Amino acid sequence: MKKNKPPFPPEWEEFPDYIEENKPPLLPHWWQWYALVTGWLCLLIGAFYLFTKVYS
Amino acid sequence: MSVADWIVLGGTLIGIILYGIWKSRGQKDMAGYFLDNQSMPWYIVLLSIIGTQASAITFLSAPGQAYTDGMRFVQYYFGLPLAMVVICIAFVPIYHKLKVFTAYEYLEGRFDCKTRTFTAILFLVQRALSTGISIYAPAIILSSLLGWNIYWTNVIMGGLLIIYTVSGGTRAVSYTQTLQLVIIFVGMFLAGWMVVHLLPDGIGFNDALKVAGKMNKLNVIVTDFDWKDKYNIWSGLVGGFFLALSYFGTDQSQVGRYLTAKSVTESRLGLLMNGLVKVPMQFLILLLGSMVFVFYLYFRAPIFFNEAQLSKVEGPALQQLRAEYNSFNQVKQEQVRALSSAIKNKDNAGVEMAQQKLQAAEANAMKVRTTAIDYIKKADPAADTNDTNYIFLHFVVNNLPKGLVGLLIAIIFLAAWGSIAAALNSLASTTVIDIYKRQFRPTAPDEHYFKASRWWTFIWGLFCIVVAQFASKLGSLIEAVNVLGSLFYGVILGIFLVAFYCKRIGGTAVFWAAIVAEILVIIVFITNIVSFLWLNAIGCLLVIVLAWIIQLLQPAHNGMKPVQSGCQ
Question: Which domain of life does the UniProt lineage start with (chain B) (predicted)?
Fold first, then answer.
């Protein structure tokens, strides 16, 4: 796979398109991953907050 | 340690080394040695990422941190999940597209050679020093347990690790990390089960949680904002986000892990899953420390957990302090039973009274302990008076059954080896690809670089052992590693963010901005204006702002085009 290494410098202008072309794993859009991760973090923080309050 | 412990410990460690050597078969070139020809599935990448970050320090210091400071340390990881998504979108596809060995290769294409070299050197300094600490962490276990000389213990530990890291490259590192993590999770679960099981009859897990809460050891969330407070939700979210972004996005020890994945999708899945599991995992490790704290309320805690150090300064004054400390321990034992009894009977007045008496006894015991630590310091000025790293170890050695002690000590070694092996692999790849091949031997055959890679893995292993010899003065090891990282990560991240998002900024501007920013970060750290987590955000923002200013002052040119200067 290293044999196909592109020459430096690569075509930098391609990056934004290249990034958009790559679909995220499991979910159709990246904003859904942001929502999932943010929701998971909020859930954890909420649970930890309750944990702190209940036991202190 | 008993014979059974020695058998379990020796068998586990030898088994891992042999497994690593077995996985080393078939290595012939650099692509195999550093990237395993990009063949790893996402779950191996995930376990490798976790195994690289979770060193022995995580399993030694984190429970001790919870014992002394409660569980608020978990907030340090709150920025990590979001950082994983950003890295998946911005960093991973670029590295894969360019088919790079190291993250720093990209910087030459985007900027110039001197920026690439400078960033690679920042990484090498930071990673080599923190790897030295990671070798020292398991070494203190053996020296404390067996009375071995700490310096020779460092040498033996680092030496064993180098064997399979040199021969196996990244494939051996990743597969041994996977096996190591399975053993580690089993061992930590057993330790957690045992600490609850060893509490007095009638005291269950929920009772222990209530007692720990009353003693302020379950304070997971701290919402008060304070620049100098190390762990609150704000420093965790903002500082932790920048630190995670820099660590996982630009630190070759992590980039090297997910570059082994067979596709962009597999790399991303590994990182995203890491974002989901890291916070709960760290919470459970800290919870174990809080349970150990409760255990030592019911049973006598030593005045100083590093008993090997204590025996060096034994004398009448210390004996008197110990007697005084034990008398407060007696009060603590009485009051913790009164507290748990009142909690069970839902006697609020009784709970309040017992809590106050228990906290007063704990405060008095802490005063005596502080006096004892001062005494140790005076009697032996060279002594390490921070015993945070010994707390969990002390519990394991003195309270767990035969065989399990050996397993717990083995998992601490395995955890250390996982992160150290990845670090040595990344130090070698950065040295060979970004320094040696780029600056000194650009046209040698691949076989030459393959051999050089093995040699540099060996050389960095030796260097890190030397660093380990000086690590004893750094206090809490987990904090020392994070402080060290924060000194450099912000600036490195700033360089990469400029590369990705500030297309008009060129190499010279970002190079000088990075140098000035690094100096300013060190000044901010020395003057202790803010807590160390903020250094990540400060360093990153400084690079971006300074690079813009310098670029504006320069004659106009397209920043996207590489400026070849400084390394010719």
Answer: Bacteria
For residue B51, which of B296, B329, B303, B270 has the smallest C-alpha distance? B270
C-alpha B155/C-alpha B180 separation (Å) is: 21
Interface residues from chain A to B (CB-CB < 8 Å):
1-2, 4-6, 8-10, 12-13, 15, 18-19, 22, 24-26, 30, 33-34, 37-38, 40-41, 44-45, 48-49, 51-52, 54-56
d(CA B224, CA B234): 8
Nearest to B219 among A19, A38, A56 (CB): A56
Who contacts B33 (Cβ-Cβ below 8 Å, separation ≥6)? Answer: B27, B169, B170, B450, B453, B454
Q: Which two tokens stand for residue B216?
A: 């302020």
Q: What is the pLDDT of residue B32?
A: 85
Residues of A in contact with B74 (CB under 8 A): 48
Residue identified by tokens 């260097």 is: B463
The predicted model scores a pTM of 0.83
Residue B449 and residue B99: Cα distance in Å, rounded? 17
CA distances from B521 to B333, B386, B491, B513, B524 (A): 47, 26, 8, 12, 5
| CA atoms of B338 and B194, how far apart (whole Å) | 23
Residues 6+ positions from B421 with CB-CB distance below 8 Å? B20, B161, B164, B165, B172, B173, B176, B177
Asked whether the CA dihedral B96, B98, B101, B103 is positive or negative, the reply is: negative
CA-to-CA separations, B432 to B28, B131, B440, in angstroms, rounded? 16, 18, 10
DSSP B560: T
User: What span, in angstroms and rounded, lies between the C-alpha atoms of B111 and B99?
Assistant: 17
Alpha carbon of residue B48 to chain centroid: 14
Query: Is there a contact between A25 and B93 if contact means CB atoms under 8 Å apart?
Result: no
- B positions 493-512 inside 8 Å of A (CB): 500, 503
Q: State which residue of chain B sits closest to A4, comparing Cα positions.
A: B99
Residue B551's nearest CA partner among B514, B506, B521, B489 is: B506
CB under 8 Å to B77, separation ≥6 — which residues?
A: B236, B240, B244, B278, B279, B282
ipTM computed for the complex: 0.79
The predicted-structure confidence for B111-133, as pLDDT tens digits, reads as follows: 888 889 988 998 998 889 888 88
CA–CA min distance A27, chain B (Å): 11
Question: H-type helices in B299-400, by residue range?
Answer: 307-312, 316-344, 348-379, 391-399
3-state SS class at B503: coil
Joined tokens for residue B153:
């213990």
Tens of pLDDT, residue by residue over B362-413, are 889 889 999 988 888 888 887 777 788 888 888 888 888 988 888 888 888 8
Of A6, A8, A56, the CB nearest to B216: A56
Dihedral of CA atoms B300, B306, B309, B310 in degrees, nearest 10, equals -10
